Amino acid sequence: MRIVIVEDSVLLREGVTRLLEEYGHSVVAAEGDATRLVPVVEEHAPDLVILDVRMPPTHTDEGLRAAIELRMARPATPVLVLSQYVEERYAVELLAMGTVGVGYLLKERVADVREFVDAAVRVADGGTALDPEVVSQLFARSRRRDPLATLTPREREVLSLMAQGFSNGAIAAALVVSAGAVEKHISSIFAKLDLPPSELEHRRVLAVLRHLTG
Amino acid sequence: MMAAVMKRLFGAYARPRVWLESTHLLLGLPVGIGLFTIVVTMLAVSTGTLFSLVGLPLLVMTVAGGRVVGQVERARVKALLGVELPAHAPISWQRGLWPRAKQILADRPSWRGLAYALLMLPWGIVTFTATVVLWTVAVSLVSLPLWGWVGEPPPAFTVDGTRFHLHGWSLVAAVAAASLVGLLLSIVLPRVVHALASLDAALARRLLSPNEAKRLAARVAELEVSRNASVESSTTELRRIERDLHDGAQQRLVSLAMNLGRAKEQLQGSDDERARELVGAAHDEAKHAITELRDLVRGIHPAVLTDRGLDAAVSALVVRCPVPVSLHTELPRRLPAAIEAAAYFVVAEALTNVAKHSRAHSANVRVAERDGVLFVEVLDDGVGGANELHGGGLRGLHERVTAVEGRLRVVSPFGGPTVVSVELPCAL
Asked: Which stretches of chain A sit within 8 Å of chain B by CB?
């Protein structure tokens, strides 16, 4: 997998580069700010762009704005946004452009290296990777528009993992239940939330996110 | 006993005050004569030659002299009477000779200084005369018994053509009576001198110092400016600290945790259980430290408040609150950073209290800006009894809110509901 990294901290830029290379990916460009993002992406046509939210010159949200801009210019480019803070508001802005090939994770998730690399691969493959913190914020926000309140605790766990972008198999492994049990929960969730049933995993995630952010 | 009485009656003479005040009152006459002469001459000459080349500059100089009079006289009052008179604010000079001349001619403190100079002559006559009479009469009466010693002939006086000579017991009685009057007078003298000196100081204050109400108004304006500056600077300072932590410690910790994570993966296949354990524990610790630091930094100044404003920042608070909260915001524009921060921390603290103490089932947050005032209200259906004085957090809020000239109200009867409401002025 060919990756572009945009991160202003040299320490992290190099650390993440080394980490990804250990897992057999190649970092084709590492930038210190997002000003040249679109030309760099056009030049290298990477499989994934990893972006920090806060970067020079204003140190506010240029990474996020650059990500949105990039997805408008080249909607097919998968983008994984990392941030010291995750805010539901940013997630909604990012997901408004579609949930295919999007990730939004707390920066510290890179500490769990294997999970982080898995999430990066998932996003590059057109999947979704949302931080559990964002998902719980989204849950809280829509808590009162509630078909969500009718879910059982187990169904909520399953929904939360789905929203983070996990596949059925990964959910079953995380909850230590059988794949069949997960499927049963999912169809129950879809029925309760009045979502169209779908076999394709990413379309399912999409439906869930649309429900949460809408 | 006797010594105490003496000290009480005549002690004033052992202290410098009566001497300094008397000197000041005596100086009133020469100062008055001098000032009067100079000012009248200068005014006469300058107005007489007003339409010649020298007249106008001379008049400007004369008027400007009013400030000098003020300076000198305030110094004299301070040195001799110990009364500190505040000086007028200096003229904030415009550019150019002519505008400055006009500024001087329109300068009230200068004209008041001149008025003082003119008044000092009649007033100086009063103070000088009173002081001289008081001191000479008191001294001569008290010292009357001494005159016999130095060989003065006994006093005599004439009533209706009959000449009376004082001698024998009548002389003693008269001298004793006169001395008694002298003693009484010398008891009163320091007080009379002090009263005159106070009058003098009051006159100087009236004419040579800015009016008290005006001075206070100026002071309030000055304090307002410096307070706004300090509120503003503390807000920017907090943002700077937040950014420094973000760029420094947080990145370093994330990098550390990542390296520990990589080490953990490397050790996965190793037999060294002890090493695996240690690295695993260090990895967990590092992640905890990151979480703690993140919460701390959010408490200092949340980044989303700077990036997206009050609406987004308050939404983030609401979704983090374990109690269901409904939120209504009407914020058509971004507000000054200090106001946004104050409003944000009011909601944060109020929701913390809701979660920790209120036992509420639901809460309601309203944030709306109307006509240059930001209204914030947090209402919960909990048990009430929240007290501004008891809750340290609420008191902290009070300080935060008053620092930006806002008002905080907490209504929380036992049994609830609790309403925390704030009004923050935010100029249009």
From this structure: 9, 11-12, 15-16, 18-19, 22, 54, 59-61, 84-85, 87-90, 107-108, 110-114, 137-138, 140-141, 143-144
